[in-house]
Amino acid sequence: MSKELAQTARKRFGQNFLIDGSVIDAILSAVAARPQDHLIEIGPGHGAITEGLFASGADLTLIELDRDLIPGLLASFVTKAPDRCRLINQDVLTVDFSGLKGPVRVVGNLPYNISTPLLFKLLELGLKVKDIHVMLQQEVVKRICAEPGSSAYGRLGVMIQAVADVEPLIHVPPTAFAPAPKVESGVVRISPNAQKAARIEDMNSLQKLVRMAFAQRRKTLKNNLKEWPTPIPWDDWGVDPSARAETLAVETYVRLANALKREETH
Ligand code: SAM
Q1: Residue 177, ligand 1, Cβ within 6 A
Q2: What separation in Å is there between the alpha carbon of 216 and the centre of ligand 1?
Q3: What is the mean pLDDT of residues 49-57?
């Protein structure tokens, strides 16, 4: 079976199908779906994770891009419980979630090339998303969960941790998939946090500040932010301009972005 999966997998859809039962069980235990949940699974593939999600009795929306996988998913899940299970044959990045009622729980073993834009698309939905359990490249999981001072700490971690709680859950070796990817993978839980999001006065300012601060990691904050449109009151901020971007806590970035936004609008 795994040989067959490996042979039919499409590289352009980032298909690496899970074949390790213990990893599938670990993901399902981490999600712990209940009948009252509204789940969205992205990229169900041949249904490795879908089966357990479906068995929980939860409401389940599947979003799969590869039309060759649609008949199998319809037969195994949708036709068995059409009142609580549906399938969208579309690129998840083009799905309009604006009408979503929420809160939904998102699960996915994602194609790695779409993982970052997808996470930002989901996080823009705020509390309509209760939590996200995703399999990503382990290196990306590390970046998402990184703490200040570590080499993995950067834009991705700051922007996600500014609005959500993050927790690395499971380390997954290449042998858990068919075909085996070249890199190690990991599952992370990302839970949008309303209190954190409420502290951000202007998301664009935060994005701009973090992008500029980390533009050249070896340079100081002062250097990276020298093109900022207004003078930066370093003393008022209580921040050392000769520090590097990776030393500042997420909360500090939020505080600074808010202060800069206020300066700009004065
Ligand atoms: N969940 C299955 C598993 O664990 O075995 C499949 C995982 S495979 C890494 C990624 C899945 O996402 C594939 O089924 C692929 O066709 C689908 N996919 C790829 N790009 C997608 C996109 N943009 N939107 C929705 N699904 C996508």
Answers
A1: no
A2: 34
A3: 98
Q: How far is the CA of 43 from the centre of ligand 1 (A)?
A: 3
Alpha-carbon distance 153 to 160, whole Å?
11
Alpha helices in 40-181 (DSSP H): 50-55, 70-76, 115-123, 138-145, 155-161
202 touches ligand 1 (CB under 6 Å): no
| Distance from the alpha carbon of residue 254 to the mean position of ligand 1, in angstroms | 34
**Tell me, what's the pLDDT at 27?**
98
Residue 181 pLDDT class (50, 70, 90 cuts): very high
Pairing of β 38-42 and β 104-109: parallel
- As a whole number, mean pLDDT of residues 16-25 equals 97
109 lines ligand 1 (CB under 6 A): yes
Distance 232 CA to ligand 1 centre (A): 45
Average pLDDT over residues 10-27: 93
Give, using CA atoms, the residue closest to atom 11 of ligand 1. Answer: 43
Does residue 82 register a pLDDT over 80?
yes
Task: Give, for 66, the enclosing helix (H) or strand (E).
Answer: none
Alpha carbons within 13 angstroms on the beta-carbon side of residue 93 total 10
The answer, yes or no, to whether any atom of ligand 1 lies below 6 A from the CB of 42, is: yes
Distance CA 183, CA 54 (A): 29
Please tell me what DSSP assigns to residue 246.
Answer: G
List the domains of the chain with CATH numbers.
Answer: 2-193 (3.40.50.150), 203-265 (1.10.8.100)
- pLDDT at residue 236 greater than cutoff 90: no
Kindly report which listed range (216-225, 229-238, 250-259) carries the lowest average pLDDT score: 229-238
pLDDT of 266 > 70? The answer is no
Cis peptide before 103 (omega within 30 of 0): yes
